Amino acid sequence: MAPRGIHARSTAETSLRKRHARARLFALFCAAVTWAGAALLMLLLYQISVNGFKWFDVQFLTSFPSRFPYKAGIKSALVGTLWLISLVAIISIPIGVATALYLEEFGKKGRLGRMVEINIANLAGVPSIVYGIIGLAVFVRGLGLERSLISGALTMSLLILPVIIIASREAIKVVPMTIRHAAFALGATRWQTAWSHVLPASFPGILTGVILALSRAIGETAPLIMIGALTYVAFLPEGPMDAFTALPIQIFNWVSRPQEEFHELAAGAIIVLLIVLLTMNATAIFIRHRAEKKRG
Amino acid sequence: MAIRSSIRKGGVRWGEFSIEVGLACCTLISVITTAAIIFVLVKETLGFFSHVTPAEFLFGTRWVPLLKPSSFGVLPLLWGTLIVTVGAAIIAIPIGLASAVYLSEYASAKVRSTVKPVLELLAGIPTVVYGYFALTFVTPVLKTVIPQIQVFNALSGAIVVGLMILPMIASLSDNALRAVPDTLRQGAYAVGATSYEVTTQVVVPTALSGIMASFLLAISRAIGETMAVTLAAGATPNLSMSMLESIQTMTAYIVQVSLGDTPAGGVAYQTLFAVAALLFLITLLLNIISQWILRRYREVYD
Question: Is the N-terminal amide bond of B69 cis, ω within 30° of 0?
Fold first, then answer.
């Protein structure tokens, strides 16, 4: 850690002034670049809202997609997304939290535990489209579930499981050891300790992680295209075995059409998607904030 | 009560035991997932290699899988992925690092506490939204500057993928910079260094492994990125040096095939898995390297 240049160049008065000028310039540069980047990303949101609000009304929310832009809406996509995310939540939350509990509270911290840990960290980095391919091969073709909601939900669950597990483990890790010791001292079993003490104490952290993971699932497009969610659906799914579409798929479909009107419809659907995501993220941040305050 | 009865049975608490087994089974699911990914990719890729030799796949320069006469050289897809990723990295790495430096070294606590959550929100914007941005904003703007640019082009894809990974680089690098102990900064200031010298010669070198890990993670995400490049860069596999032309990335090819109705079992269907296996290997390698760098970095502070 020897900062070489510092000693070599610090003697002369002029070079000192030059160095301070350079420091100021550098600070300015970093600030400017940050705000430029932020401005670009704001531009994206601005551009979407300008185009999207043209079509944004009740009819847009309550109509099926159509060949005619003025008649088209996102009813089936919105309902499909709600179905999908509910199924994903039912499947992935219990499995994810159970895995985190096992790894933190039950599993032996040996070589095997370490390998499972590395395995989960790597699963989190697998591109979503690879999960899509596995969903296609295993759920759609292998298990014969067809291009149904349940195929999509299972694929998405595999995709977000690592995220839920990692977040839940972090939340469980910060629960003080003294709480466990107190429970054990009173004769509680491992499971009683985990269920009535560790889990409630880590609940806000787990909930935050789960919400963020689910919001990722809501925005994912590629895996759903892989398992063959349909792009034109003029009916509502009534059960997990039905075909479906979802918001990101509908957006993709509209964006890939050449006509201007459909691009604006896509912007409208993006607004709905972003509102859903923003609400979920804000909830997560709020929960985290409250838990931090409580902890002091 | 329950405890006493289980003691009588010989010390094994069956309820407790079955719960532990149940939890262990849940843990097994993620192991099975990995096994399934590897099994499916290997099985179908081996099937593909019975039609096409690995050498032809890896070193062939023409990718025409769906038409006759077909040719299965994956290099054009790799090339498309490479130029989009490199372009995105050229945009996102300097801006991301400068933003991280600003946030951790210069910004006030108030600015930081607002910008940081916004970065996290931006990192959560779905990639199909960036695809929309590429087609409806970036490409038209590029068209007015460079009139000969194609509607689908690699440049637009690289720009939006760069924008997409920017919040991730800024946020992760900021974490790495903040982990540098303040005593190092104070020591450097004490011997008369300016803020520029402290940042470039002390803080950034100390946090370098964390910063590199964030770059690698972002690059791995750019490689695996699908919807933005599919929408922006088109579906023309070629080895063109020009970023103004339409190209095709590995992920865009997978989407293109699965949008059509490809019958299971054919060579075209198997190409999906061969390309996905390559994609999986590349991103896995990058992730392992970044984890390795991070682990070494942790040892410094423990």
Answer: yes
**Structure-derived torsion over alpha carbons of residues A278, A279, A281, A285, reported in degrees to the nearest 10:** 130
Domains of chain A (ranges, CATH numbers) = 60-295 (1.10.3720.10)
- Domain B74-301 architecture: Orthogonal Bundle (1.10)
Whether A227 has a pLDDT exceeding 70, the answer reads yes
pLDDT-above-70 percentage for chain B: 92
The reply to whether B226 touches chain A by the CB within 8 Å rule is yes
Give the start-end residues of each E strand in chain A: none
Q: What's the pLDDT at A197?
A: 93
Q: Are A113 and A103 in contact (CB under 8 A)?
A: yes
pLDDT single digits (tens) B30-57? 999 999 999 999 999 999 998 888 888 8
Question: A-B interface: how many C-beta pairs under 8 angstroms?
Answer: 264
ipTM confidence = 0.87
- Distance spanning both ends of chain A, measured CA to CA: 36
Is B19 in contact with A29 (Cβ distance < 8 A)?
no
Pick A125's closest partner by Cβ from B124, B137, B287: B287
Indicate the Cα dihedral angle A247, A252, A255, A259, nearest 10°. Answer: -90
Of all residues in chain A, what percent carry a pLDDT higher than 70?
A: 95
Interval A95-107: pLDDT, tens = 999 999 999 988 7
Tell which residue, A290, A294, A269, has the closest CA to residue A72: A269
**The pLDDT of residue A296:** 52
Tell me the H-state helices in chain B: 2-8, 14-49, 54-59, 75-101, 109-123, 127-133, 139-145, 154-178, 182-190, 195-198, 204-206, 208-224, 227-233, 250-259, 267-301
Chain B residues lying within 8 Å of A119, measured CB to CB:
30-31, 34
Q: Indicate yes or no: CB of B128 within 8 angstroms of CB of A252.
A: yes
Q: Cβ separation of B132 and A266 shorter than 8 Å?
A: yes
Mean pLDDT of the B202-216 span: 91
Each residue of A280-294: pLDDT tens digit? 888 888 887 787 777
Measured in angstroms, the CA of B287 and the nearest CA of chain A are apart by: 7
Quick check: B30 and A102 CB within 8 A?
no
> What gap in Å lies between CA B286 and CA A105, rounded to an integer?
31
In eight-state DSSP terms, residue B280 is H
Question: d(Cα A108, Cα A241) in Å, to the nearest integer?
Answer: 40
DSSP string covering B131-146: HHHIIIIIHHHHHHHS
Q: Which two tokens stand for residue A152?
A: 């999509």
What's the rounded Cα separation, in Å, for the pair A104 and A106?
Answer: 6
